Amino acid sequence: MKLNKVAIIGSNSFSGQDLVDLLLDETDAEVVGISRSPEKPAMFCRYRANAAAPERFRFHRLDLNEDADAIAALLEREQPEVIVNFAAQSEVGPSWEHPWQWYETNAVALAKLTHGLVNADWLRKYVHISSPEVYGTTEGTIVESSPINPSTPYAASKAAADLHLATLAKNYDFPLAWIRATNVYGAGQQLFKIIPRSFIRLKRGETIELHGGGVAVKSYIHIRDVSRGELAVAVSDDALGGFHISPDEGMAVRDVVRKICEASGADFDSATRTVGERLGQDAAYVIDSTKIRTQLGWAPTVTLEEGLAGVHEWVEANWEEIEVQPLDYVHKP
Description:
By secondary structure, this protein is an alpha/beta fold. It is built from twelve helices and 13 strands. It folds into two domains: 5-184 and 221-245, 3-Layer(aba) Sandwich (Rossmann fold); 189-218 and 249-285 and 302-323, UDP-galactose 4-epimerase, domain 1. It has helices at 14-26, 53-56, 68-78, 99-115, 153-172, 194-204, 223-235, 253-264, 268-271, 290-296, 304-317, 319-323; strands at 5-9, 30-35, 57-61, 82-85, 125-129, 176-181, 183-185, 208-211, 217-218, 220-222, 241-245, 251-252, 272-275. It has a seven-stranded parallel β-sheet, sandwiched between helices. Strands 7-10 form a two-stranded parallel sheet. The protein has a two-stranded parallel ribbon with strand order 8-13.
């Protein structure tokens, strides 16, 4: 499929902004961005420095909850052949405090958005960004058809969205592709995430807290590799249904932090301390990505060492701005 116009809902998110940048680099498509917050500065929004952005990217500040009708009108006016939806309440811990807000955005607003798209004859592909957290703790080989078993309100709200979209695909031939990528990271990520947060704490001379000792196994994958997988799904006419995007192997959080300490010249034992585990923390996120590798020829290209070095360089290069930023998640209802 040749991409002429793509709409990115959640274009200000870490993953959304990177896909916008990749689309501007590797396609000739016009890109329509939709997010509820203003565009971020270039240090957090890679496409802002892309030479093609002024000509081919248009941003609209609209909220999926508050501006549903305006978003529907915009999409009808623009008629993108591909929509990629990143918009979501996405943090696990805070979802226990206001769980209804996660359902309002991740399930209810999603249902309203897609209800208006089921008869859109101009839409050739709707790419939904799901989460492997819908599986709960992963054991054995987790493929796209594995049963879901969420452990948190966030994961349950994403699972609800996935199940609703499946009904549209079954009953309306809705051109659905969904993607579950593992633990994405990279330069420009939100500062409260474990990888940038660890580099920042070390530079400040502060201790890194390891929830539950950091024994939970994650599958860290670089943002550009994830965006490449999303683009491969978007451009393939045959890529419908679910796709996993994951690295070759998982790694305990403490081992990733150990690599960060080594890159920063810090002693792991003195730079970290164990704190209580998060409520509902799954023991492992390890999923199988054979399908996208064999069907679309995708494979990760950025090693963890290369990716961590990139985050470290980004922190150093933007330290004056980063130093004054809070490291805690700030919830926006």
